[in-house]
Write a structure and sequence with these properties.
Strand content of chain A: 5-15%
Largest sheet of chain A: 8 strands, mixed
Shape of chain A: globular
Order of helices and strands of chain A: EHEHEHEHEHEHEHEHHHHHHHH
Structural class of chain A: alpha/beta
Strand order of the largest sheet of chain A: 3-2-1-4-5-6-7-8
Distance between the termini of chain A: 47 Å
Oligomer: homodimer
Number of strands of chain A: 8
Chain lengths: ~325, ~325
């Protein structure tokens, strides 16, 4: 099979490594020609996962049309804010039988669409799209450490077969909405738990926040038509736990730095890569309002990021909410 | 209110501190007279949470009958293997109106009873028992860091009111079985994720194990009559995440040491305190067989602890299982 990954950030690079590792002729689209050239010459991404040697079967191409035309399987790993534009450009080059696999996480700002809805609108019909989400730090996938992900769609077979390897297992579900919401919203909760850890609230508080975080993600997902049980799976609980407890998470690092008193602008300047949770906090907050779903953690993170609310006040408002039964908001 | 906590280990000491902190005249039963005397003289537990100064309103008593007779609220925090015997001795001393709150976690070996079932059999009728479970490292509670727990029972009001403080929040549920199973089985999963981390499998693998761990705990709980949604709450997911990711967890440390190649006997000798997961792995494994529930992680941890199965083989058998859909075992 011939595979193409769009987007040469950490996650796109890791997925391309996995596809090449299991034997597919793999193209990694890097829109920067200089970097694409260096990848092909040095067999190493000069900017992301720089410690990892790339497999022989992987080559980079800065030409979007040519990269897309190569693909039997097209994987998207560009940031969420770029997906619609990239998909629109890719459309005319995509082979009629090619499958599309989406690894971009987020809720599009403005339209409030999931990444599945973006691709369905701009690229191919729903039945040709598979979402690939789940607990997966790019560096660990690149280093072939054991990873389990979930593939969601009407026909997940092709994507699952393409990625499947001894240390990379794909489990399937038909709950596209649940996977999209779970995989995207966890980044907001990673900021929240990062803030709590940055302030030094402790492990008990973090576990409580993760639990309440999954509850509010589930409310939003169900309001959009998801099966609540999906939230107990890899794209719900699994990805949430990974992102909220692992220091490789960019979103968690944003929260930690906020908790330590840095400003958002400082943090984003130092990070140098997109932290999807920052924009998802905005789009999820709007989506919750639109659907009438109570999301107190998302609400406080939105206030912290976009309304200059002081960290102490946001945390106090969050921890101090009165709630009597576990099933309440 | 007059409160008594049975068991002066880390958790019993922390709960007694919390009760004294919010103003109750609190007795901590330490069966060791020398240690009880030192607690009263030095206002510090000489063996557990040694860094924490105990409140004035807390005193220790080595006399079980006198300690129990003191209580309007009796809290049990002895190890699971000792609960039945301690409860039987306490029975004749307990005031007729006293409420009982159980903070002991585990599944009794041999009888395979939950701690609620043990107390119901040996001490008071079900309606007088409240379980107090949830994500709570003792040291953090002792230091008054924010903590949220769940109280489960027919009438949780008295226990919830007794413990409730600004940084210690009690949420109620009526799903006693779900709370008992969730709060006990997480210790087995903590050993499993500890082993994986000890071997160096990485954060992706740990998140996958936690996800599958919650799924198998849920299967067992549901087979015993629990509501699956309880598993998404503080005594399910919350406590599981805390125990599987926080290095203060004794059970996790057992797993880490196993993963690093130590023998169980070495580890238990060094630990010096009960790791409930070791006995729960045995009782849960039997309970799963009795109820016909598939529990692959518990099965491998049982084999590792009790059948001398090598760590590498147990992990390989665990990670290598073929599974296609998220909802499968």
């Amino acid at each position: 099979m011939r595979a193409t990954v769009l987007g040469a950030g950490s996650w796109g690079t890791a997925l391309a490594i996995q596809l090449a590792r299991v034997g597919h002729e793999t193209v990694l689209w890097d829109r920067n020609p200089g970097r694409a050239e260096r990848i092909n010459r040095e067999h190493r991404n000069p900017r992301y996962l720089t410690s990892v040697e790339l497999p022989e079967a992987l080559r980079a191409d800065p030409n979007l049309g040519r990269a897309v035309a190569h693909a039997d399987l097209l994987v998207t790993a560009v940031p969420s804010h770029a997906l619609a534009a990239v998909a629109a450009q890719a459309k005319e080059h995509l082979a009629p039988q090619a499958a599309v696999c989406c690894a971009t996480k987020g809720i599009e700002d403005g339209t409030l669409r999931t990444m599945h809805e973006v691709l369905e609108h701009s690229l191919v019909p729903s039945e040709r799209i598979t979402m690939l989400y789940g607990p997966s730090f790019a560096l660990e996938v690149a280093n072939n450490l054991p990873t389990a992900v979930v593939v969601a769609g009407a026909d997940t077979h092709r994507a699952a077969e393409a990625f499947h390897g001894q240390n990379f297992r794909c489990y399937s579900t038909d709950d596209v909405v649940g996977v999209c919401v779970g995989g995207s919203l966890k980044n907001v909760m990673a900021i929240a738990t990062g803030v709590a850890d940055g302030v030094g609230l402790g492990a008990n508080a973090r576990a409580g926040l993760i639990t309440r975080g999954l509850a509010e993600i589930t409310r939003l997902a169900v309001a959009k038509g998801a099966n609540p049980l999906t939230m107990m799976g890899l794209a719900g609980l699994g990805d949430l736990v990974l992102t909220c407890t692992g220091n490789l998470s960019r979103n968690r690092r944003v929260g930690l730095a906020l908790g330590e008193g840095k400003t958002l602008q400082q943090i984003l300047d130092e990070l140098g890569e997109v932290a999807e949770g920052v924009s998802t906090a905005s789009s999820a907050w709007k989506l919750a309002a639109q659907l009438g779903v109570e999301m107190p953690i998302t609400h406080q993170i939105h206030a912290l990021l976009y309304e200059d609310k002081p960290v102490e006040q946001a945390l106090a408002d969050l921890m101090g909410r009165t709630r009597r039964s576990e099933r309440d908001g």
